[in-house]
Design brief:
Blueprint: E1 2-3, H1 10-19, E2 21-27, E3 30-36, E4 39-44, E5 47-55, H2 59-63, E6 68-73, H3 77-87, H4 97-101, E7 105-106, E8 115-116, E9 121-132, H5 140-146, E10 162-174
Antiparallel strand pairs: 1-10, 2-3, 2-6, 4-5, 5-10, 6-9, 7-8, 9-10
Bound molecules: flavin mononucleotide.
Residues 20, 32, 34-38, 53-55, 58-60, 85, 88-93, 156 line the site of flavin mononucleotide.
Length: 176
């Protein structure tokens, strides 16, 4: 494990985020990973923060009640693109993604959620703030596009609102 200064990797993290990275949670002994491509890296309350945007219907949304998550970023997308797609199209409610994909979990250092060997750039985060987005404050065409009222939780883009989870980055490293 090589500890890193997270902002030395800002560029890499944001470039990978656009294509999809994983948020991993652990609750009641169960581990689940979900793909996200919305988020940001920044500083708030004088702390390094990663914010993710999770629709309320995702299994991950309820897993985040654990108060912690890891962010798992690939260093070799060609090798790991398929698993990122899988985690973005299957729910932990229906399938144990870790088992199905044979992911190699590495116990977290400061949080209960693990790191993932296949996606080694790891941010360990503790949730210090969460807030529901108010889609009614978006331009109408964005409301209609991103929150279509006729699509329930089973659709990728659906009527569920996003909640923002602000994770204080308490450890950043490349796992091995
Ligand atoms: C590339 C990609 C990016 C995604 N980004 C997000 C996101 O930022 N927020 C979100 O709520 N869902 C996002 N999704 C959808 C979830 O990953 C998907 O619904 C997943 O199956 C949820 O898993 P879970 O039910 O185990 O939490 C994305 C999917 C893909 C393929």
């Amino acid at each position: 494990m090589k500890e890193i200064e997270v902002f030395d990797y800002s560029n890499d993290i944001m470039k990978e985020l656009q294509k999809g990275i994983l948020i991993t949670t652990k609750k009641d002994g169960k581990v689940n990973s979900m793909t996200v491509s919305w988020g940001h890296l920044g500083i708030e309350w004088g702390k390094p923060i990663f914010v993710c945007y999770i629709r309320t219907g995702r299994y991950t949304h309820q897993m985040l009640d654990s108060g912690e998550f890891t962010v798992n970023i690939p260093l070799d997308r060609d090798k790991n693109g398929k698993l990122i797609n899988y985690c973005g199209s299957h729910s932990g409610r229906d399938v144990d993604k870790v088992k199905k994909l044979g992911l190699h979990l590495i116990p977290g250092i400061e949080v209960s959620a693990p790191a993932i060997q296949e996606l080694p750039l790891t941010l360990e985060c503790k949730i210090i703030y969460r807030q529901m987005q108010e889609s009614s404050k978006l331009p109408l065409e964005m409301q209609e596009h991103f929150y279509p009222s006729d699509k329930d939780s089973s659709f990728g883009i659906n009527r569920d609102q996003h909640e923002m989870f602000f994770g204080e980055i308490i450890k950043a490293y490349i796992a091995d």
